[in-house]
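Q: I'm writing up a methods section and want to include an example of the input and output format. Could you take the sequence below and give the corresponding predicted C-alpha cells, formatted cleanly so I can copy it straight into the document?
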Amino acid sequence: MVVRDAVEADLPAVKAVYDAEVRGGTATFDTTPPPLSAWRERLASPHHLLVATDGADGAGGSGGSGGSDGSVLGYASSTGYRPRAAYDATREVSVYLAADARGRGVGRALYDVLLGRLRDDGVHTVLAVVALPNPASDALHRAVGFEEVGVLPEVGHKHGRWIDTAFYALRLT
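A: Here is the clean output for your methods example:
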C-alpha cells in the first residue's frame, strides 16, 4: 500500500468511494453526490487530500478494486474547522474507504500520514465527526490518539432515521 498526495487522475476514484457512502451509508450526511468539480476544488485548496493505493504507485486507479494495480482504496482529507480566525490552528479530518479496503489497515495508514502532515503544518487541534453507531470508526480514531469529546443527538436524518454524531479531538502540539 502507498499513501500519497491525490492527483487529478485520482479524483474519479475518490469520488466513487465517497459517492458509495453518500448513497448507502451514514458516514456522510450528504444525500446527493457532489460533482467532480467539487473534488477538483478540494484538490486545489490549501488543505490535504491523500489517497491510499494498493500495489503500484500509479495514479487514477479503478476506485477500490482491491487489486495490486495502484487502485484507490480510500482517501483522507483535512479542511478548515470554521471560517473565523481564532480557529486557524484547528482542522477537521476524515477518512473514507472503499468497501473492500476496510479492515486492512488502510484507514490507519492514511491517518498516520495525514496527522504527520498536519503536525508539520503547525496545526494544534484536529477534530473528526463520526455518525453513530460506527464501531470501526470509533476504534480507528481511538487507535490514532483521538478521544471522544461529545455527542450531538439526532442531528442528521438519512435513510429514514435520525442519526447521532460523536465529536473526536486530538491535540497535535
